[in-house]
Structures are given as structure tokens and as C-alpha cells.
């Protein structure tokens, strides 16, 4: 799995950052009318296809399917509503969020393409009920998931990413450290270098 996993909140970020050499990006759209969501997913797929970048669509698995995307990310609540039979039948891979051992057991029972553990560090992106997991939990998660790729997420930065990978994560996902950087392009290049 790609080590550098970029997550963005709007397709405009994909247009801006994917051409720099990003190979794995999640489009995580929130609070947006559904027609606009579809339009963004469609454009994101076009850009990612043109740059040999894997697009992962967050939450909107049905639209992802209709727009011929092949990878989605689902959280525990998303999983309640998802039709895994339909997702599998369409050959769509999926990554699943986990925050505790119960969620991990549940996630692994679906045979996901990856499991995400978060928040590794405190995040300012969204309010979360879980305390930061820390690096020891990353190592423990990797022992438990075995060959299933593990994504570390939450409060990650260029400076923190190497420690999360060394602790056992196969991939490190990031929003704020890039999207709110003074120079997001320069920060993206630093991430690519750090994770190469
Ligand atoms: C790689 C990755 N890990 C975790 C999440 C969080 O998913 P979820 O819990 O469904 O929360 P939202 O992102 O939908 O707010 C993620 N998106 N990506
Ligand atoms: C969207 C998300 N999910 C998390 C989880 O633990 O499931 S942490 C998180 C936020 C990641 O953003 P940042 O890099 O800005 O902290
Ligand atoms: Mg979700």
C-alpha cells in the first residue's frame, strides 16, 4: 500500500495536489448537496485516472459505484448502512475505520482492503470521542491485523509520519498538515519525500 495517503475535502485540492505526484487520495466531502458531491467525485476520478493516482471515495459508496470508482472508505456508522454484497459484487475495495478492539473485530470480519486506526495524535479536524491512540496502539493494531494493511490517521504531520510508520503502520493519512499549511504544495512535496 502507498505510504502517503492524502485526504482532502474538495476536488479542487485533488486538481491542485495530485499532479505533484500523489498516488493515493481520499475525497472526503461533507455538508454538500448530493448533485455537487456527484460532480466532485466524477471530476476527481478523471483527474486521478489521468495521473495514475488511486482515488478513494469517503462515505458515498453508492455514488462511487455509479461513477465507476473502485475504492471507498467507510466508518463504523457508514458500515451499518452499506450494502457489502453490492460493493463486493461491483469489485469495489473498501477500507474501514477502527478506534477500539470491538470495532477492529467487526472491521476484520468484512475482509477489508485496509484498516485505519485513529486518532493516533489529537486532531483538530473533527470532534472525536476517542483519546489519542499513541504509537504503542499502532504497533498493537499491526500485530492484530497481520497482513491487512494498516493506515494511521489523526494529527499526523511530516515530522510525526516516520514514527507512525516505524510503529507498524503501512500508510499514513493526513488532512490538516497539508490543507492548512502556508504552502500546501511544498508540504505535499515534503510528505512525498518523507514517505518515499
Ligand atoms: C483513512 C481514513 N480513516 C478514517 C476515516 C474516518 O472515517 P469515519 O469514521 O467514517 O469519519 P468521516 O471521515 O466520514 O467523518 C477516514 N475518512 N479515512
Ligand atoms: C477524518 C478522521 N478520522 C479519524 C479517525 O480516527 O477515524 S481522525 C480524522 C482526522 C484526520 O485529519 P487530520 O490529519 O487533520 O488530523
Ligand atoms: Mg464516514
* Major sheet description: 8 strands, parallel, barrel
Under CATH, the homologous superfamily reads Aldolase class I
- List the helices and strands in order: EHEHEHEHHEHEHEHEHH
Q: Regarding CATH, which class?
A: Alpha Beta
Low-confidence stretches: none
* CATH architecture descriptor text: Alpha-Beta Barrel
**Rough shape?**
globular
Pfam families: TMP-TENI
Pathway: Cofactor biosynthesis; thiamine diphosphate biosynthesis; thiamine phosphate from 4-amino-2-methyl-5-diphosphomethylpyrimidine and 4-methyl-5-(2-phosphoethyl)-thiazole: step 1/1
GO molecular function: metal ion binding; thiamine-phosphate diphosphorylase activity
InterPro entries: Aldolase_TIM (IPR013785), ThiamineP_synth_sf (IPR036206), ThiamineP_synth_TenI (IPR022998), TMP_synthase (IPR034291)
Describe this structure in words.
- The structure is a single chain.
- The protein is an alpha/beta fold and 196 residues long.
- The chain has one domain (4-194): TIM Barrel.
- It is built from ten helices and eight strands.
- An eight-stranded parallel barrel has the order 1-2-3-4-5-6-7-8, surrounded by five helices.
- β6, α7 and β7 form a beta-alpha-beta unit.
- The two termini are 12 Å apart.
- The protein binds the ligand Cc1ncc(COP(=O)(O)OP(=O)(O)O)c(N)n1, ligand 3NM and magnesium ion.
- The site of the ligand Cc1ncc(COP(=O)(O)OP(=O)(O)O)c(N)n1 has 15 residues, from β5 and β7.
- Residues 97, 99, 118-119, 123, 125-126, 153-156, 174-176 line the site of ligand 3NM.
Amino acid at each position: 500500500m502507498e505510504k502517503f495517503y492524502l485526504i482532502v475535502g474538495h476536488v479542487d485540492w485533488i486538481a491542485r495536489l495530485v499532479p505533484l505526484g500523489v498516488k493515493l487520495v481520499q475525497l472526503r466531502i461533507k455538508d454538500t448537496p448530493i448533485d455537487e458531491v456527484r460532480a466532485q467525485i466524477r471530476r476527481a476520478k478523471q483527474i486521478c485516472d489521468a495521473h495514475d493516482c488511486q482515488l478513494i471515495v469517503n462515505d458515498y459508496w453508492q455514488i462511487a459505484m455509479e461513477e465507476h470508482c473502485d475504492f471507498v472508505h467507510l466508518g463504523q456508522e457508514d458500515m451499518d448502512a452499506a450494502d457489502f454484497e453490492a460493493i463486493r459484487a461491483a469489485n469495489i475495495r473498501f477500507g474501514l475505520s477502527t478506534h477500539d478492539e470491538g470495532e477492529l473485530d467487526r472491521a476484520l470480519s468484512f475482509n477489508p482492503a485496509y484498516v485505519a486506526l485513529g486518532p493516533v495524535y489529537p486532531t483538530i479536524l473533527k470532534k472525536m470521542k476517542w483519546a489519542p491512540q499513541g504509537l504503542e496502539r499502532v504497533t498493537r493494531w499491526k500485530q492484530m491485523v497481520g497482513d491487512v494493511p494498516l493506515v494511521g490517521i489523526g494529527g499526523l504531520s511530516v515530522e510525526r509520519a516516520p514514527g507512525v510508520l516505524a510503529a507498524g503502520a503501512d500508510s499514513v493519512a493526513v488532512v490538516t498538515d497539508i490543507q492548512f499549511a502556508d504552502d500546501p504544495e511544498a508540504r505535499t512535496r515534503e510528505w512525498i519525500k518523507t514517505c518515499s
